[in-house]
Amino acid sequence: MDSVAMVFLGAYHGLNPGMGWLFAVALGMQRGSGRGVWSALPPIAVGHAAAVGAVLLAVALMRVVIP
């Protein structure tokens, strides 16, 4: 699985926090080692941060529009 796909999975994790660890474990099982889990965590964290940032931006914009 490439890093771009894992970033998108991280963004999904940001929207649904219960799912990120499942993707990391699935990648680890697919690769057959614990290193797969650890290598999946940084891109998932980047995607998670992007999703959280997008939600924060949306809330900030709504506060401007809706008094």
Helix content: over 70%
Structural class determined from secondary elements: mainly alpha
Task: Indicate the overall shape.
Answer: elongated
Overall pLDDT metric: 78
Major beta-sheet overview? none
Number of strands: 0
Number of helix segments?
A: 3
Cα distance spanning the termini: 44 Å
Percent of residues in beta strands: under 5%
- If you compute it from the alpha carbons, what radius of gyration comes out, rounded to the nearest whole angstrom? 14 Å
User: What is the chain-wise order of helices and strands?
Assistant: HHH
What does this structure look like?
The chain has 67 residues and is mostly helical. The protein is built from 3 helices and no strands. It has helices spanning 3-15, 20-31, 34-65. It starts with a helix and ends with a helix.
Name some characteristics of this structure.
single chain; 67 residues; mainly alpha; 3 helices; 0% strand; elongated
What is the gist of this entry?
With 67 residues, the chain is an all-alpha fold.
Sequence-ordered SSE layout with sheet pairings:
Elements: H1 3-15, H2 20-31, H3 34-65
